[in-house]
Each structure stands twice: as C-alpha cells, then as structure tokens.
Amino acid sequence: MNKLKLFKFLPTALIVLALSNPSKVYSSPVSYVGKKGHYTINSQTGVYQSCVYSRPECLSLGVKSKIGPSSWKNGDYTYSVSANGIHVYKKSKEIFEDTFAKQPSTETLISLDGIGQAKLGMTYGQLKTKLGKAYQFKPATLIFPHLVGRGIAIVHSGKIQYYAFGSINGQISNQMSDKNKIDALVTYNQSYKTSAGIGPGSLLVDAEKFYGKASIRYGETMKGKEKFKQEYVLFPKAPDDSPPHEVGKDGYLFFFLKPISGIYSKLENLDSGFGDSKTNKFKSGTTIQWIGLHGNGYNLF
Question: Which residues of 261-295 are buried (b: 16+ CB within 10 A; e: fewer)?
C-alpha cells in the first residue's frame, strides 16, 4: 500500500495550545478551556469563537467586531478575554463569566510538537540528555494499523511514560541508535493530557465537549496469522482541517479507542485494513485508549 493510500484513512484532528497572553499576535489559533465552555482566539486574523457547553451552537465574531487586543463587540454585547478567564457584558453589565482551567505542565503536555519533554525532530540522544539518568530507555514493539513499530519506551519510576519511534536520514529505522530522529510518539499514560485536559483514560463524551461530535472508524489488520483490531476517532472542530495526505510539519494528533467501542450497523470491507465501518454512536463509558502523533511524511498510524 503506497503512502497516499495509507493517508487516505488517517484522522486529521489537531489541538491548539492554551497560551498565557491573548494580546500577543500568534500565527495560529489559541484555545482556552473553561468550566462552562471553550474559547478560541486568532489574533492574527482577528477571529473570536466561543462554544458554551449548554448551548447548541458556537458564536463566531470576525475582525470587524474587534475593539481591542482581546475584546470583541456584538451589538450590546462585549466579550473580553484575559489569561485567566472570559467576561461577557451587556450594556456594561456582566452577564457571563468563565474561569479557564489550569493547563497541564510542560512535563505532561500532549501537543502538536510532542509529548512531555520528547519533541518531534529531536534525536534519541538529545532526549536522553534532556531527561537525565532518572529515565530509562528500553526497546519496545507496538502493533499499529499499517506496520509493526519498533522504537523505545521511555520509563520513569518503573512506569512507561510514552513511546518514541525514529528514523535516520528520513527513513523509518528500527535501530536504537542515539542518532535516530524522533518522528512519532505514543502514550497510554493517563498523566499526559492535551491543553483541553484530554488524555488516555478520558471519556469520549468529555472530549466531544471540546472537539465536537466524534466520528469513529473501525478496522482490522492481519500481522501474519494474527488479527489486530483498531478504532480511531475524528473530531470536526479541529483548528486546521487539512487533507490527511498533507501532513503538517508540526504533526497530527491521533485518538484511538479500545476496540470495539463504536456501535456499528455492520462491519464492511475490513480486508484492506480500515474499511467503511464508521459510526458516531459508541458505548456508554467509552474512553480514549491512547494518543499518538507523527511528523511530516511518517505513516506509523
């Protein structure tokens, strides 16, 4: 199966990071997570969006409504965002406020750049130097939808933090050399979360509050005589909905479930891996099993 055919079936959901200064100009949207909803600002384009969980639709205001670095006006309503929260006023009277949730530390953050201290593009050797002697690096093998991934497990206090998979000179490599460039990362560890507070072990219904209605796809992969089942999730409210084969230089995030969590009318075309079996219905209590990301041109998932 060629590269473009592989990418045809890959999810494209991306996550934006919550940053501390909304007045600064950013090249991409900045999202804040509150108790009542989530809010996105793109200071470069001047767009503001709020999605309050108790309301069916999100509010979007363009640059014409902008009245300050982080304030927008819509008729009698004024929306003001700070690093700590959002305040909405109607004719100078506050009618709504929300406090932003504390963000994960850089030690446990899942982002488009990497997982924790491991970043796409650094080498195994650089990661070892950064983490120090308290961490162990052990050979590891994981089964993915399209290939067997051989990389390293990063272990701290006897617990696997995440897995790293690398390449040398742009080619996927199974070697454990310190020169391997990290091109993919995976974590099952529930200590690691995105800026929205979503990580392995998070309920899918909670992820939907931030990323929108989940679309689940199921497939089966044969490795020799053994069958492996896999389910991943696509979310509609991704900040960048690029086609799957146009992999961004900063990577994609991939959300996988424990199969079979979706409720399907029938399972179709499974001989070719991920087929036409998709649904937006899932079992009560469904959780995200693992999250992974890879960089440009790497097709581990």
Answer: bbeeeeeeebeebbbebbbeebeeebbbbbbbbbb
Going from N- to C-terminal start, the domains of the chain cover 1-16+103-301, 30-99
Strands 77-81 vs 85-90: parallel, antiparallel or unpaired: antiparallel
Q: 67 with 74: CB under 8 angstroms?
A: no
Number of residues that this document lists for the chain? 301
Backbone angles phi, psi at 172, to 5 degrees: -55, 130
The CATH number fitting domain 1-16+103-301, selected from 2.60.40.1670, 2.60.460.10, 3.20.20.70, 3.30.70.270:
2.60.460.10
Q: What is the pLDDT of residues 220-270, one digit of tens each?
A: 777 777 777 888 888 876 543 333 333 334 457 889 999 899 998 877 655
Sequential DSSP letters for 105-127? PTTSBB-SSEETTEETT-BHHHH
Residues of the chain with pLDDT under 70: 1-29, 103, 145-147, 168-174, 237-251, 268-276, 296-301
